[in-house]
Amino acid sequence: MKLNIQEENGFKFLDEGEGEILILLHGLFGALSNWSGFTSHFSKTHRVIIPMMPIYDMPLKEAGLNGLVKFIEAFIEFKNLDDFTIVGNSLGGHVGLIYTLANRDKVNKLVLTGSSGLFENTMGGSYPKRGNYEFVKKKVTYTFYNPGVATKDLVDEVFETTSSIPKCMRIVAIARSAQKHNLASELPKIDVPTLLIWGLNDTITPPMVAHEFNRLIPNSNLRFIDKCGHAPMMEHPEKFNKVFENFLEQNKVLI
Question: Which CATH number is 52's domain given?
C-alpha cells in the first residue's frame, strides 16, 4: 500500500478511510510504514490516522515523553478528533497511555503492543552505535523473532538515523525519559476497554511485562502471538488484525 502522507500546520500524518477513528502511534525507531498491513486492512471500514511523531527533530530540551504527549494533544486538537481508539507500539504505547490518563473523555478504547511504561530492554540492552552498520543491523534484527523481517531497507533507515549526532541525542533523551517514567501506580486508573497484543518471543518488552500490564489495567485482555517479537503488526499483520478485529467487535461503539 502506498502511503499518502499529508502535511498541514507543521504536522505530517496519514489519514485514510472513513468511520470509527483509529489513531496509531509508532515507536522510537518506528515509521508510518510499520502500520502498512494494518492500514490497508482497516482503512476500508475505519478512519485510520497516523501522526508522525517528531522524535528526530523536536527541540532537544523537549525530547521526552512529555514533549511527545503535548505534540499528540496538539495534533488531536488541530484535527478536531474525539471518541477514538488509540493503538500504540513500544514508545507509542507509552505515549498513548499517558494521553489516555490525561484525556479520558476522548479515548474509547486502548490497544497496546510491545508497550514501554513498565520495563523495556532498549535496543537489546544498549543504544545503537553511531556509524557501526553491523551493530545497528544486529539490534534491528533483535526486534523480531524472524530475522527476515529486518530487511536491508529497514536496517538502512535506522542506520541513517543513528548516523546523525543530533538525532542520536534526541533518541537517547527520549529513551531515557521512557525508562524513568514507570506507570505502575497510574495504570489502575485506566478504565477504557484495553487490548494487549504481545509477541510471545518479545525480547525488548518480554511476556512478563504484558502479564503485568494485564494485572494492573482493570478492563484489559491479553493475547499473545507465537513466533513473534516486539512489533506484531509488522511480523504477523494478519494475526494482529484478526485479534484487533475481534476486540472491536466485542467493544462496539454505540452511536
Answer: 3.40.50.1820
Torsion, CA 159, CA 161, CA 166, CA 169, rounded to 10 = -70
pLDDT at 188: 97
Question: pLDDT of 81-129, one tens digit each?
Answer: 999 999 999 999 999 999 999 999 999 999 999 999 997 665 444 455 5
Dig out the grid coordinates for 253 from the structure: 461503539
Q: Is residue 36 part of a domain?
A: yes
Residue 22 phi, psi (nearest 5): -120, 120
Is the pLDDT assigned to residue 38 strictly greater than 60? yes
Q: Which three cell numbers stand for residue 10?
A: 507543521
Q: Tell me how many domains the chain contains.
A: 1
Question: Residue 98 domain-assigned?
Answer: yes
Burial profile 188-224: b = 16 or more Cβ within 10 angstroms, e = fewer = eebebbbbbbbbebbebbbeebbebbbebbeebbbbb
Cβ neighbours, 10 Å, residue 6: 10
Given a cut of 70, whether residue 254 has pLDDT beyond it is: no
Assess if residue 48 is contained within a domain: yes
Q: Is the distance from CB of 225 to CB of 239 less than 8 angstroms?
A: yes
The whole domain housing 234 covers 5-122+182-250
Lowest mean pLDDT among 9-23, 30-44, 61-75, 188-202: 30-44
For residue 143, how far is the Cα from the chain centroid? Answer: 14
Could you give phi then psi for residue 239, rounded to 5 degrees?
Answer: -70, -40
